[in-house]
């Protein structure tokens, strides 16, 4: 549906119609869809909107950042609801994520629903209005960046303080556990090494006897293997002159004798090295008993696991000893970043104070045109601790009548006054925010007559720089529209369907006449409608 540029209104049975249209727009804004509004679940449902963005050059950066095809004249948003109830998003016919669609759509469409009137009383909305009027937008970005750095550093400080607190609570116990390792020698493979040495010392006598007797058999003073081999070699050498293989056999015997002599020397050396040492055996038994005790205490199977536990305990104790220095360094960093954030916050406060004065002047002027001639408006800015949105607590204070004290909006504004106040704010904000489309859903609730006509004129003023679509029940508002649509229902034997139709100038007169007089349209009602349109 092409609403065209300028000011468009939607009238008629707007309850069902607007729920469908706003639901479609909300789909483009990335919101969840209501499967109940799709009557044929076997077919794909498509919502598409086209925007003239020729005046909004700042949007080019979005397309470049997300590598999406960019047309400086036209932007097309589309969202499809598939039969399996899943959705797909497209920007300029390129597939996009839902987050990308949402990010772009919120810069193209601003939907103000009737329930949003209450936002004017919310501190968060009031602060966003004020920040939207700040001339130097870099101040807010600078503060946000500095506060983030301060908050990150403060979080690191608190995390370290918590770790130190826990470590100190466990420090005595960890030192006690670590002290139990002091009398036990632990190194890689130590348990196997000690067990082998224990076995050797326990059997030292048998081992020494076996080594010594083996040596005597090889090279003892009495009959020995080496002596016999020497005699054999001598006999072979005696026939070398008459027996050619004798030389080779003699060499082999000599080689064997040399190898056995080396073996005999080794046996002798090993025998001398083996000595019974009861003191050493006691020490080794104590070490192995200590290792076994630690394994049972820490419920592990190997000495290597004990080494890892000792290392962890050592690191915990050392961490406590060295953490104070690290904490002092972080505290200095936090202090410096806090000072920088506070300085940026002061500049932001000054800019907000300037914007508050501007907002008060502009709102009072705008409100006067909406039959609120006695309105007084101020923005209260009070200091508060550093927070993500600054160091200011903002409150809109208003008085609608003479001699009435300034009060918070929530405490003094009626429904109609809230509607007018919100429209004034929208008109002020619109002057600073580049956005192609503004949808006003019954923002004129609670007003009538001359006030409604004034609100319509303000909407027309808003439409000079952007497309404004108003959903209304008031003829005074509908009469000012450049384009008029009517929502109506049709019943059949099976279903009730909702339709929206663009009205011709003649049909617009009839619709406004019906809004003025009810279902009976007479000449007087038509004349009143024409007069209202031409006024």
Can you describe what's shown?
By secondary structure, the chain is of the alpha/beta class. Among the domains are: 119 residues, 3-Layer(aba) Sandwich (Rossmann fold); 76 residues, no CATH class; 153 residues, no CATH class. The protein is 56% helix and 16% strand. It contains 17 helices and 13 strands. The strands form three sheets. A six-stranded mixed beta sheet has the order 6-10-11-1-12-13, with helices on both faces. A four-stranded antiparallel beta sheet has the order 2-3-4-5, with helices on one face. Strands 7-8-9 form a three-stranded antiparallel beta sheet. Helix 7 runs antiparallel to helix 9 and helix 10 packs parallel to helix 11.
Features:
17 helices; 13 strands; 535 residues; alpha/beta; Rossmann fold; four-stranded antiparallel sheet; elongated; six-stranded mixed sheet
């Amino acid at each position: 549906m092409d609403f065209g540029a300028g000011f468009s209104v939607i009238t008629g049975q707007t309850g069902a119609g607007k729920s469908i249209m706003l639901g479609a727009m909300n789909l483009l804004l990335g919101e969840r869809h209501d499967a109940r509004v799709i009557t044929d679940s076997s077919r794909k449902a498509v919502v598409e909107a086209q925007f003239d963005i020729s005046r909004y050059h700042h949007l080019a950066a979005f397309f470049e950042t997300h590598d999406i095809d960019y047309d400086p004249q036209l932007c097309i948003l589309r969202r499809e609801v598939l039969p399996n109830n899943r959705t797909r998003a497209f920007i300029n016919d390129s597939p996009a994520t839902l987050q990308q669609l949402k990010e772009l759509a919120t810069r193209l469409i601003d939907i103000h629903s009737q329930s949003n009137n209450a936002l004017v009383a919310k501190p968060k909305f009031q602060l966003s209005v004020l920040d939207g009027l700040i001339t130097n937008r870099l101040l807010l970005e600078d503060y946000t960046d500095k506060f983030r750095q301060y908050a990150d550093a403060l979080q690191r400080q608190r995390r370290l303080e918590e770790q130190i607190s826990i470590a100190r609570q466990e420090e005595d116990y960890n030192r006690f556990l670590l002290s139990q390792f002091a009398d036990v020698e632990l190194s890689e493979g130590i348990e196997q090494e000690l067990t082998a040495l224990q076995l050797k010392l326990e059997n030292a006598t048998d081992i020494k006897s076996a080594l010594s007797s083996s040596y005597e058999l090889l090279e003892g003073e009495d009959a020995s293997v080496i002596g016999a081999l020497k005699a054999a070699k001598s006999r072979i050498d005696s026939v070398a002159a008459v027996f050619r293989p004798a030389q080779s056999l003699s060499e082999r015997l000599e080689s064997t004798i040399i190898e056995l002599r080396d073996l005999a020397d080794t046996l002798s050396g090993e025998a001398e090295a083996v000595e019974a040492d009861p003191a050493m055996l006691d020490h080794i038994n104590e070490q192995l008993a200590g290792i076994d005790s630690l394994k049972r205490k820490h419920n592990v199977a190997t000495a290597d696991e004990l080494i890892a536990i000792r290392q962890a305990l050592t690191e915990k104790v050392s961490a406590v000893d060295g953490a104070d220095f690290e904490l002092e360094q972080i505290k200095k960093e936090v202090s410096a970043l806090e000072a920088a954030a506070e300085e940026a916050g002061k500049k932001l406060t000054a800019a907000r104070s300037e914007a508050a004065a501007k907002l008060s002047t502009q709102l009072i002027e705008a409100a006067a045109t909406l039959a609120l001639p006695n309105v007084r408006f101020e923005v209260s800015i009070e200091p508060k601790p550093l927070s993500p949105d600054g160091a200011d607590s903002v409150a809109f204070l208003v008085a609608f009548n003479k001699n009435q004290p300034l009060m918070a909006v929530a405490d003094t504004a009626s429904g109609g006054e809230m509607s007018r106040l919100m429209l004034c704010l929208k008109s002020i904000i619109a002057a600073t925010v580049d956005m192609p489309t503004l949808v006003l859903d019954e923002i004129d609730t609670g007003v009538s007559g001359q006030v409604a006509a004034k609100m319509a004129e303000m909407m027309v003023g808003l439409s000079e720089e952007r497309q404004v679509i108003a959903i209304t029940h008031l003829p005074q508002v509908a009469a000012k529209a450049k384009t008029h649509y009517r929502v109506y229902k049709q019943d059949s034997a099976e279903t009730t369907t909702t339709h929206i139709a663009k009205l011709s100038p003649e049909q617009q007169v009839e619709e406004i006449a019906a809004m003025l007089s009810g279902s009976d349209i007479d000449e007087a009602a038509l004349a009143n409608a024409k007069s209202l349109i031409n006024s």
